[in-house]
Amino acid sequence: MTTRSLGAVVFGAGIAGKVRIRDILSCDGENIGAKLVGFVSRRQLAIDGATQITEDEALHRPEVDAVLICTEPCEHEHVIRKAFGCGKHVLVEFPVCTSASVTAELSHLAEEKGLVLHEENIALLTPGFLALKEKLLNARSPLVKGEIHLTGSYNGWVEDFEKSGGPFCVNVSLIQTLYELVGNDLHATGGQLEVTDTGFVATAKLACSKCRDLTLTIRRTKERSKREKQTKFILVDGTVLDDTPGVTPPPVEGMSQPPKKPGLFMQDFLQFVDKVKGLRENTTDTARTLHCVQVADDIHRFMGLNS
């Protein structure tokens, strides 16, 4: 890599893809160390300031250093393999792909080629998560129970386990949240899946050395509903800790306000850029990615799903 701005291409122009395009376009390329070369989509789209290019152009143009993959999970492996074959770094929306074995293979391939494979997880950047992590770190009483509940509606592929890799693969972010909050020795102890005419409920039981009673519950319905997540931990002394964001305190007279942080997707992208430029290590994030997708596969085996 030279000192020039990182040339990036976005694959997929859905909600996440459009946010990625907007973020890069809205910032001066020199300030973030990157510039948007174009985007790839199955649809013909007009996006102000962005150029639609073909997959072949995205992978072979010399000014493209990295691809940002914002497509359905079943498409990730195909694009990652092609990107690595062309010497491009990869940022991919979670999950990296739909199985632990393939994720490990792609991770090793990136290492062999000296490329960055970065899995997005903006849930680990939210104020609520960071506050909860701090509370748990400072807790004086041991944990006895932890749970995360996720609810939302179908979106065309999250309910298709062939495309999504199963409920805890497509929602591997939940496992990664527990991994970061309670320990990297997290492992699956059980799992159940109930599918009805109106949706499905997937439940995972997990444990680690800090807590033997951890539950993840995913409820998805055909009926349109808002995506919501609730995280709660209970300590031995009865204290309940959750990730509900607090009310922003009013400004203190005579004190300037801290500068506004970039959005979550931009924060994630800047981490990726730093990894590509050798300013941030990737080993810790890779270990989390590999561990948590394996836990997802283990949960699915308890459910009787093929992983």
Q: How would you sum up this structure, described in words?
A:
With 307 residues, the chain is of the alpha/beta class. It folds into 2 domains: 6-123 and 264-280, NAD(P)-binding Rossmann-like Domain (Rossmann fold); 124-248 and 287-303, Dihydrodipicolinate Reductase, domain 2 (2-Layer Sandwich). Helix content is 37%, strand content 25%. It is built from 11 helices and 11 strands. The chain has a 6-stranded mixed beta sheet, with helices on one face. Strands 2-1-3-4-5 form a 5-stranded parallel beta sheet, sandwiched between helices. Helix 5 (100-113) runs antiparallel to helix 11 and helix 9 crosses helix 11 (283-303). The longest helix is centred in the last third of the chain and has 21 residues, at 283-303. The two termini are 37 Å apart. The model has no long low-confidence stretch (mean pLDDT 91).
List keywords for this structure.
5-stranded parallel β-sheet; 307 residues; 6-stranded mixed β-sheet; alpha/beta; 25% strand; 11 helices; globular; Dihydrodipicolinate Reductase, domain 2
Provide the gyration radius in Å.
20 Å
Instruction: Please state the second-level CATH architecture of the largest domain.
Output: 2-Layer Sandwich
Note poorly predicted spans: none
What is the CATH superfamily label of the largest domain? Dihydrodipicolinate Reductase, domain 2
Helix content: 25-40%
Strand order in the largest sheet: 7-8-9-6-10-11
Give the count of structural domains.
2
Largest sheet: number of strands, sense, barrel closure: 6 strands, mixed
Q: What spatial form do the alpha-carbon principal axes imply?
A: globular
Round the mean pLDDT to the nearest integer and report it: 91
CATH secondary-structure class of the largest domain: Alpha Beta
State the end-to-end distance: 37 Å
* CATH-derived topology of the largest domain: Dihydrodipicolinate Reductase, domain 2
What percent of residues are in strands?
25-35%
Q: How does the helix and strand content classify structurally?
A: alpha/beta
In sequence order, what are the helices and strands, one letter per element? EHHEHEHEHEHEHHHEEEEEHH
Count the strands? 11
